[in-house]
Amino acid sequence: MKLLFDFFPLLLFFVAFKLAGIYVATAVAMVASFAQVGGYWWKHRRFETMHLLTLAVIVVFGGLTLILQNDVFIKWKPTILYWVFAGIILGSHWIGKKPAMERLLGSQLALPAAIWRRFNLSWGIFFLFMGALNLYVAFYFALDHDAAWRREMWVNFKVFGSLGLTFLFTLAHIPFLSKYLDTEIGKDTP
Questions:
Q1: What integer best gives the mean pLDDT of the chain?
Q2: Distance from C-alpha of 93 to C-alpha of 117, rounded to nearest angstrom
Q3: Which residues 6+ apart lie within 8 Å of 13 measured at CB?
Q4: 8: buried, middle or exposed (CB in 10 Å: 19+, 13-18, 0-12)?
Q5: Under DSSP, is residue 108 helix (H, G, I), strand (E, B) or coil?
Q6: Which of 16, 49, 75, 162 is placed for a possible disulfide with 25 were both Cys, Cβ 3.0 to 4.6 Å?
Q7: Which among 176, 160, 178 is positioned nearest to 10, based on CA atoms?
Q8: Is the confidence at residue 177, as pLDDT, over 70?
Q9: CB count, 10 Å around CB of 101?
Q10: What is the dihedral of CA 70, 72, 73, 79, to 10 degrees?
Q11: Cβ count near 145 (within 10 Å)
């Protein structure tokens, strides 16, 4: 359920884009992000950092998109967010006692320090790559097609391509992390 809650602004953006275009979709995503942050606070009486970062970036870049009626700004939003995440993750190698991914997932995974650092580094590089890939799809992919078709391709990539690549990247870690997963689960059952 949390996964759906985390992605509902993106899903609403996609639906609004298909029904009414990029500017309505941008406004919908902004409202949905405010609702997400408010709903999370209402239920938990605290804010989640990822939601706040996403809200800040969409308010700035979505706001510029709507005010200037130029979709260039909303196309930059995923890249900025990916690169902020990459900066936080990679910066945690030098700031703080634990890598960012260990702070995020340390209660669910018990990994040696060296593995945490490699895991952290791989996610930082992945987010750098995803930011660059978003820029490529948004501004350089299929330049021989018209702007409306390219915008449609970017939205489809933003919703399905980036989520799919993130899912595959997550799955790719399973073979490397599986030996560190708790093998005690299920031992007491006959």
A1: 91
A2: 7
A3: 25, 26, 28, 29, 32, 155, 159
A4: middle
A5: coil
A6: 16
A7: 160
A8: yes
A9: 21
A10: 170
A11: 12
Q: What would the pLDDT profile of 26-53 be if each residue is shown by its tens digit?
A: 999 999 999 999 999 999 999 888 889 9
Secondary structure, 3-state, 122-142: HHHHHHHHHHHHHHHHHHCCC
Residue entry with tokens 């609403």: 12
Q: Which of 15, 9, 16 is nearest to 32 (CA)?
A: 9
Distance CA 137, CA 104 (A): 30
Identity at 41, one-letter amino acid code = W
Q: Which amino acid is at 133?
A: L
Q: Report which residue type is found at 55.
A: L
Residue 83's identity, in one-letter code, is: W
Q: In the numeric block, which tokens belong to residue 43?
A: 């239920």
Report yes or no: 58 and 76 within 8 Å, Cβ to Cβ.
no
Confidence (pTM):
0.87
Confidence tier at 4 by pLDDT (50, 70, 90): low
Residue the block writes with tokens 């992605």: 7
Token pair, residue 129, equals 């790559």
At 120-159, the pLDDT tens digits run 999 999 999 999 999 999 999 999 999 999 999 999 999 9
